[in-house]
């Protein structure tokens, strides 16, 4: 008999990670919008890492910030769908990195989110991505991420 595939939640547990409590939107928007079989998330920052990459934080700290930001995104997805197993495919992520003008390692920072998605969803976690530097982000968060998913009906 073949090896049973683990659920996304089991994969998170194997990484010794858990989804945080859903963050409350700080404006007139919702955490997720579903249209057809696509789910669009609002941007999710991270409270644990503040400041600019290239001045206040290292690339390694930025990687952890991106991973935590993605956990916040996944918490919103789970709240919307009830089960991460309903994710058919991660289509695209957009990562905003609070960074100095000289900092050019935004892709290395965003690998924290991308690596997590592949570890949680396997092949379905491989995605298109943009990683861009920003002059500032709300509440001085180090990273903010939004995502587009294809979901099961």
Concise synopsis of the structure shown:
Helix content is 30%, strand content 24%.
Count every helix, treating DSSP H or I runs of 4 or more residues as helices.
3
Helical percentage? 25-40%
Quote the average pLDDT.
Answer: 95
Secondary-structure content class: alpha+beta
Taking all Cα atoms into account, the compactness measure Rg is: 15 Å
Distance between the termini: 29 Å
Categorize the overall geometry: globular
Strand and helix order: HEEHEHEE
Question: Major sheet, described briefly?
Answer: 5 strands, mixed
Low-pLDDT stretches: none
Strands of the largest sheet, in order across it?
A: 1-2-5-3-4
- Structure summary, number of beta strands: 5
Beta-strand content bin: 15-25%
Give me some keywords for this one.
153 residues; 3 helices; globular
Structure description:
There is one protein chain. Strand 3, helix 3 (106-121) and strand 4 (128-134) form a beta-alpha-beta unit. Helix 2 (59-81) packs across helix 3 (106-121). This protein has helices at residues 8-14, 59-81, 106-121; strands at 32-35, 38-41, 87-98, 128-134, 143-151. The chain has a five-stranded mixed beta sheet with strand order 1-2-5-3-4, with helices on one face. The protein is 30% helix and 24% strand. With 153 residues, it is α+β, with helices and mostly antiparallel strands. The model has no long low-confidence stretch (mean pLDDT 95). It is built from three helices and five strands, in the order H-E-E-H-E-H-E-E. It is globular, with a radius of gyration of 15 Å.
């Amino acid at each position: 008999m073949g090896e049973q595939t683990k659920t996304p939640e089991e994969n998170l547990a194997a990484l010794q990670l858990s989804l945080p409590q859903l963050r409350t939107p700080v404006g007139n928007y919702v955490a997720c919008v579903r249209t057809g079989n696509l789910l669009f998330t609002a941007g999710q920052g991270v409270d644990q890492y503040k400041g600019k990459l290239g001045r206040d934080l290292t690339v390694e700290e930025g990687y952890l910030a991106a991973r935590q930001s993605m956990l916040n995104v996944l918490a919103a997805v789970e709240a919307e769908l009830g089960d991460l197993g309903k994710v058919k495919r991660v289509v695209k992520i957009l990562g905003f990195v609070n960074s100095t003008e000289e900092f050019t390692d935004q892709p290395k920072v965003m690998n924290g989110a991308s690596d997590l998605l592949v570890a949680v969803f396997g092949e379905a976690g491989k995605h298109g991505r943009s990683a861009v530097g920003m002059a500032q982000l709300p509440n001085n968060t180090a990273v903010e991420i939004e995502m587009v998913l294809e979901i099961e009906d």
